[in-house]
Design goal:
Blueprint (H helix, E strand, L loop, with lengths): L4 H25 L1 H6 L9 H8 L13 H12 L2 H5 L1 H7 L6 H26 L3 H8 L5 H29 L13 E3 L4 E3 L1 H5 L2 H10 L14 H18 L3 H11 L2 H14 L4 H8 L10 H14 L6 H6 L8 H52 L18 H14 L4 H4 L6 H5 L5 H13 L5 H35 L3 H15 L8 H11 L2 H32 L5 H28 L3 E6 L4 E6 L2 H15 L1 H10 L13 E4 L2 E4 L6 H6 L18 E3 L18 E3 L11
Antiparallel strand pairs: 1-2, 3-4, 5-6, 7-8
InterPro entries: B(0)AT2, Na/ntran_symport, Neutral_aa_SLC6, SNS_sf
Subcellular location: Membrane
GO molecular function: metal ion binding; proline:sodium symporter activity
């Protein structure tokens, strides 16, 4: 090497240093132009980049205070009123204990995999339902909007049920309870029992006349029921105050609202088991009718119950999980919450049938006493011979077994004349077979049973406070399914949006507190959620499994969780769950088509319910509810498929998310130069900053209008500097 080689090398090094200084100087002067370009870069400052390299990036998104708070929130959302008044009814109707087998199978096939899917996408992308499905597939972004619409529809009438529970709760601080006895009516000459109450029962009369003051049809508005209007206002005020700060405020309430129902259910179970007849109710529940299990209707109803019990499709599951840490084990959460939900349903069913068994025993004893008096009169009148009555039977203290014996003997001896005697069999099984669900179970059957409890006001207060807490837990998740996606997408203040949402929902909800309001609750419950939610969850499954790609999704899960999920989920998401959901959708449409659209109206003169068909305007509302809930899906698809809105105008299609920041996405990338800076000549180009992370598409990956999100960028790989061509440097 020449002697002056070191001098030459030093001069070359100086030139390189000067070139780098010029490069950095040019970059600083053109920094604004570079930031406005459509190059896909991580726009965090260098100090943020250094922190991220240490995996300690401070996220602007709120987070749960603890894992327990998050689990309680998910449990509170999934465990709702349906666990108490729907699941026991389905058990009773569909073969008792035999119903648990198809329910458990479908929980494993549909429930847990889809629940895990929603938890995963929410935690992975850290956005509400709108942001999640915009991210995965912008053309299917309408899924998120549809979820919000369904959540709003459900919140409208669900809070009305909480209002009813608040009314009964406020009336429970009396001894005796106001629904314990039929009211007396006085006129000028004498006093008599209210005819409507005498024809039905004290609790039935109180529910329809005192609480709802119900009209005889949906067409008869009858004006507002002011008692229920005040209760509805109170319910919305509670929800608004609890949700106004998001999970910071609602999360603390979850400790009480989620745990208190378990305390009450356990106390009720212990108390009910000490009552006479409770074992009869539980025995009736778990007497399996295996032949019923083979009927398709049982599997359809079990699948629907699994689907709605976990709150799939509402967006609440996604919203809650979006506040998790990215490395949280959401697979464990999915299994845990699903089985907590299942065992809660079992606990509630045991409580319901223990209490109904006690009630059936009380009713049966009354029936035996009344019919024994009739038999004594018939014997005295000579219609029944004294000789056929067994000598050991004492009608003054007759047992259920002795009455059954006497009844069977009279039925055999007086075979032709028996119907004219008007005797009842008085069997507990007949009373337990009277299947009740929904408001009929909570506000009539269960309420009547509690009037026979010792210290009945205490148990009534506990029961309706439990219903309020169950309802609020589900309402928090439902409202979160509206607030979180809208705040994430449109960047509005959460407090203002919460107040506006609750105020608007209260104003619309006034239709449910008219005298005919109960019929509108039935309408919304039947038509606003069932089919739209099924369609939403089917499209969620398709979007992840086929549009985004199940293989890539499994890799993302492995990256996020730190372990590969069992291949069981791969086959469930790709093959089994979509087929099961499509079958459930078809079965639901067929069932809805075969069932005449209508409602059970209360007839005051007959003191009984009568099925009435919806009027024409009612049918229009039913159809409109389903159409409005599904409409965002095709609308967003058409708009983005046909580019009806300019992507450069800042619409949702050109927005993605990066750790709480909104970034413009690259649109219509063509060519190497165009992919870097559009509409810029070479002299206006700023040089890339090597300290920032530059992303490129994976080869062979499908085109997705998304930008990298966090350290798990879907569809992108980080381009390490040594791999870049010299010309780029």
């Amino acid at each position: 090497m020449p002697k002056n080689s070191k001098v030459v090398k030093r001069e070359l090094d100086d030139e390189v240093i000067e070139s780098v200084k010029d490069l950095l100087s040019n970059e600083d002067s053109a920094d604004d132009a570079f930031k406005k370009s459509e190059l896909i870069v991580d726009v965090q400052e260098e100090k943020d980049t250094d922190v991220e390299e240490r995996s300690e990036v401070k996220d602007e998104r709120p987070a749960w205070n603890s894992k327990l708070q998050y689990i309680l929130a998910q449990v509170g959302f999934s465990v709702g009123l349906g666990n108490v008044w729907r699941f026991p009814y389905l058990c009773q109707k569909n073969g008792g204990g035999a119903y648990l087998l198809p329910y458990l199978i479908l929980l494993l096939v549909i429930g847990i995999p889809l629940f895990f899917l929603e938890l995963s996408v929410g935690q992975r992308i850290r956005r509400g339902s709108i942001g999640v499905w915009n991210y995965i597939s912008p053309q299917l972004g309408g899924i998120g909007f549809a979820s919000c619409v369904v959540c709003f529809f459900v919140a409208l009438y669900y809070n009305v049920i909480i209002g009813w529970s608040l009314f009964y709760f406020s009336q429970s601080f009396q001894q005796p309870l106001p629904w314990d006895q039929c009211p007396l009516v006085k006129n000028a000459s004498h006093t008599f029992i209210e005819p409507e109450c005498e024809k039905s029962s004290a609790t039935t009369y109180y529910w329809y006349r005192e609480a709802l003051n119900i009209s005889s049809s949906i067409s008869e508005s009858g004006g507002l029921n002011w008692k229920m209007t005040i209760c509805l206002l109170a319910a919305w005020v509670v929800v608004c105050l609890a949700m106004i700060k998001g999970i910071q405020s609602s999360g603390k309430i979850m400790y009480f609202s989620s745990l208190f129902p378990y305390v009450v259910l356990t106390c009720f179970l212990i108390r009910a088991l000490l009552l006479n007849g409770s074992v009869d109710g539980i025995r009736h529940l778990f007497t399996p009718e295996l032949e019923i299990m083979l009927e398709p209707k049982v599997w359809r109803e079990a699948a629907a119950q699994v689907f709605f019990a976990l709150g799939l499709g509402f967006g609440g599951v996604i919203a809650f999980s979006s506040y998790n840490k990215r490395d949280n084990n959401c697979h464990f959460d999915a299994v845990l919450v699903s089985f907590i939900n299942f065992f809660t349903s079992i606990l509630a069913t045991l409580v319901v049938f223990a209490v109904l068994g006690f009630k059936a025993n009380v009713v049966n004893e009354k029936c035996i006493a009344e019919n024994s008096e009739m038999i004594i009169k018939l014997v005295k009148m000579g219609n029944i011979s004294q000789d056929i009555i067994p000598h050991h039977v004492n009608f003054s203290a007759i047992t259920a077994q002795d009455y059954d014996l006497v009844y069977d003997i009279i039925q055999k001896v007086k075979e032709e004349e028996f119907p004219a005697l008007h005797l009842n069999a008085c069997r507990i099984e007949d009373e337990l077979n009277k299947a009740v669900q929904g408001t009929g179970l909570a506000f009539i059957a269960f309420t009547e049973a509690m009037t026979h409890f010792p210290a009945s006001p205490f148990w009534s207060v506990m029961f309706f406070l439990m219903l309020v807490n169950l309802g609020l837990g589900s309402m928090f998740g439902t409202i979160e399914g509206i607030i979180t996606p809208v705040v994430d997408t449109f960047k509005v203040r959460k407090e203002i949006l919460t107040v506006i949402c609750c105020l608007l929902a209260f104003c619309i909800g006034l239709i449910f507190v008219q005298r005919s309001g109960n019929y509108f609750v039935t309408m919304f419950d039947d038509y606003s959620a069932t089919l739209p939610l099924l369609i939403v969850v089917i499209l969620e499954n398709i979007a992840v499994s086929f549009v985004y790609g199940i293989d890539k999704f499994m890799e993302d899960l492995k990256d996020m969780l730190g372990f590969a999920p069992n291949r069981y989920y791969y086959y469930m998401w790709k093959y089994i769950s979509p087929l099961m959901l499509l079958s459930l959708l078809i079965a639901s449409i067929v069932n809805m088509g075969l069932s005449p659209p209508g409602y059970n109206a209360w007839m005051e003169d007959k003191a009984s319910e009568k099925f009435l068909s919806y009027p024409t305007w009612g049918m229009v509302i039913c159809i409109s509810l389903m159409v409005l809930a599904i409409l965002p899906i095709p609308v967003v698809f058409i708009i983005r498929r046909c580019n009806l809105i300019d992507d450069s105008s800042g619409n949702l299609a050109s927005v993605t998310y990066k750790r709480g920041r909104v970034l413009k996405e690259p649109l219509n990338l063509e060519g190497d130069d165009a992919s870097l800076i559009h509409g810029k000549i070479s002299s206006e180009m700023s040089s890339p900053n090597f300290s920032k992370n530059i992303y490129r598409k994976q080869s062979g990956s499908p085109t997705l209008d998304t930008a990298p999100n966090g350290r798990y960028g879907i569809g992108y790989l980080m381009a390490d500097m040594p791999d870049m061509p010299e010309s780029d440097l």
